[in-house]
Amino acid sequence: MIIRRLQRHQVVVDLVIALVIGIAPLAFDIHQGRFSLVVTLGMVVALVFRRLSPPIALSLVWATAAFEMLTLSGAQVSNLAIPIVLYATAAYGSNQVRWLGLLSVGVGAVVGMFYVVFARVDVFGVTHDIASIDDFVKVLLQIGITFLGFLALLGLPWVGGQLVRTRYAAQESRDAQLVAEREAARAEGDAARAEREAVRAELDIAIEQERTRIARDMHDVVAHSLAVVIAQADGARYMYRSDPTSAEESLTTIASTAREALGEVRVLLGQLRHSQGAAPQPVLSDLEKLVEQMTAAGLSIDLRSSGTPAQLGSNRQLAIYRIVQESLTNVLRHGDTRATVDIVFDWRPDDLNVVIASTLLPPPEFDPSTTPSHGMVRLDERRGGHGLPGMRERAALSGGSLTTHQGGGRFIVRATIPSTALTQEVRLR
Q1: Which of 277, 299, 279, 276 is CA-nearest to residue 221?
Q2: What distance in Å separates the CA atoms of residue 173 and residue 155, rounded to the nearest whole number?
Q3: Which residue in 357, 293, 296 sits closest to 330, CA to CA?
Q4: Terminal-to-terminal C-alpha distance of the chain
Q5: 72: left (phi over 0), alpha (psi -120 to 50) or beta
Q6: What CATH number does the domain located at 284-365+372-429 have?
Q7: pLDDT digits over 323-373, tens only?
Q8: Which of 73, 131, 228, 259 stands 20 to 30 A from 156 (CA)?
Q9: Molecular function (GO) terms listed (predicted)?
Q10: What is the pLDDT of residues 135-149, one digit of tens each?
């Protein structure tokens, strides 16, 4: 049997009701026989357990009522425990106990009717004398009225308990719905907060990518411009006595390059400071100007193209421009500027292959007493530079790849950039 947990005030109420039902017979001068004390005790114990354990209470009521009828005891005040227990079975019992309580209502009404009509005829003055049809009808009426009386006495408390049970169930359902609504609102709030955090994280990533792009562009612009300025300044220093006109041209190139670099740096710094929109970026059509600038800086460049050019996105055009710019800058700083730099654009159906081939400087003669000249450092011997990694990153962000290798005194940069519209272009920003 399952014992329910009750609050203290509920236990007190049940004990008081049981005590009242137990001592009530003492207030009436009614002699019920020698078994009345046993019946009263059984009913009182059933009342004590009516909410603690409705099955125990129902069993005690049935056992006590059966004992009462077997001993032909008369009705007494403690019999009020029967409807109270039936109410408890409907209100607090399990589904099985509840339906056993309903079954007890029907069986109790039938048994009680037979007990009163045939065993204790003195209770309601029922007579069995049948001398005519009228007497038979009266007996049937007495039986019917007695049955209905017991049915109402036992059934109404059970119905009341069922109504209370339904009300409690409805209240629990409303409470559960409120809890579910609160949980849903909390979950919705958590989802909204997670969405805001995701948006914030995406914004932070975008900002970081933008700063990385600006830093990359800053490196390309400054490195290229300084390489041109250094080369022109070195040339002007050696030519200003023998060929003043060439020295003047070199100084003009230095001034022009410095102004362009200053303008681009100002744009990049303005983007970094004010989060402005991206300024116009170089595209493939600007390569001619780049070649002219690098030629003026002292390089010999052979730019060729084969195949049918395809329409590329601005990000891919910028990547190609920066790769060519960085390669030419490296040649100007570390390669043999007397040899021709070959730049080949090979347009294929699905991609564009860009090959930049330059001549390496011969290795310097080993002299322990001197240090190598800065112009004799080979590309693959530099440490800590960002040029080649930056080119590889640009190619990868455009959906392509970049490789470098050297052989036969040549240093070759090969970039493959997708040119089909089906390839999703990765934004550099």
Answers
A1: 279
A2: 27
A3: 357
A4: 72
A5: left
A6: 3.30.565.10
A7: 998 899 889 888 888 899 999 999 998 899 999 999 998 876 545 444 444
A8: 73
A9: kinase activity
A10: 667 777 878 888 888
